Amino acid sequence: MQQSTSSSSAPPAAPLFVVPSADASASLEVRRSLAAHLDDPLNRYYRYPAARALLRIAGGLPLRPDHITYLHTAVGALGATVMAFGTSRTAMVVAYLLLEVRMVLDCYDGVLARAKKLSSPRGRTLDELGDAVGYIAICIGMNVHLHRAIPGIPGELFVLLGMVVLAAGAMCGHAYDFYKRRLGSALKDGRDAIAEELDQKHALVRAGNAKWITRFGIWFDRWQVRLYEPLYPAGNAVGTILERSQSTGVRFLVRLIGFISWDNVLGMISLGVLLDRIFEVELVALAYGIVMFTMARVTMWRVLGRRGQS
């Protein structure tokens, strides 16, 4: 994606936030502390601690991260089914518990992968697909429930609402995955995880060992770069992030990314199921997705893009 360059006589655009010089970049410890905010608050303070506790209990079982991904996908589909066809208060409580278990297991597959040193681009792509299947099932479940609970409204309206909320979640989830990898790998380790994963996937393709999931991962990553990557000074993503890591803009951006995560909305949905306020939660989710996606995308380009662009 190209940006037009302003003429040499035009003054450079004022930066959105004050950026310190390169020698003022944050220390590794400070950067890693900042990167922790890339996780959304519910995952950071509740689900990941629960997943680490589960690791202490079940980490010795002969389970791979892929098994947990399959499990959380199935649990999400089961929770969506209970939500869709349940009519009693008990059914809604069961659906709520299943959706929350799904979220903890979604964190646990990553915790288990790191503990067993089984992290891989394939596993990450598989987890993304599992999340997508689970979220599609939840959207269908919510709107089937609403259609059954409010029969006077045409079903087509619930289908439309479900599709729009699904699109908002996909949009935020796609962007969040990119922003978290881009900022997280640079701040924590000074590396470009996206480029490294693409290199690994392309190596599998060249060797003739690439399966469909690897090719899908390449397509997925390329579209993320095209849609969300700003035009960095000298084309150096990692260098720019490290140089500006102490700026007010980058600190604000990192915290903002934690709130673009669709896991925040999934937490709202779980609560909406428990309180039987699914319709209201869908409307809030739609507004939340549009606002957070727009804020994150604009802030990323303004904070980390080239200065002096028109």
Overview of the structural elements:
By secondary structure, this protein is mainly α. The chain has one domain: Four Helix Bundle (Hemerythrin (Met), subunit A) (Up-down Bundle). The protein has twelve helices and no strands. Helix 2 (41-58) packs across helix 4 (89-115) and helix 6 packs parallel to helix 12 (278-304). The model is unreliable at 1-24 (pLDDT under 50).
What features would you highlight for this structure?
12 helices, Four Helix Bundle (Hemerythrin (Met), subunit A), globular, disordered N terminus, 310 residues
Structural domain tally: 1
Helix count from the secondary structure assignment: 12
Unreliable runs: 1-24
Shape descriptor: globular
Q: What oligomeric arrangement do these chains adopt?
A: single chain
Structural class: mainly alpha
- DSSP strand content: under 5%
The CATH class label is: Mainly Alpha
Q: Main beta sheet: strand number and arrangement?
A: none
Radius of gyration: 21 Å
Helix content: over 70%
And the CATH topology? Four Helix Bundle (Hemerythrin (Met), subunit A)
Care to give the gist of this entry?
With 310 residues, the chain is mostly helical. It is built from 12 helices and no strands. The protein has a single domain, classed as Four Helix Bundle (Hemerythrin (Met), subunit A), CATH 1.20.120.
List the helices and strands and how they pair.
Layout: H1 28-35, H2 41-58, H3 65-85, H4 89-115, H5 121-149, H6 155-189, H7 193-206, H8 212-228, H9 237-243, H10 248-260, H11 263-275, H12 278-304
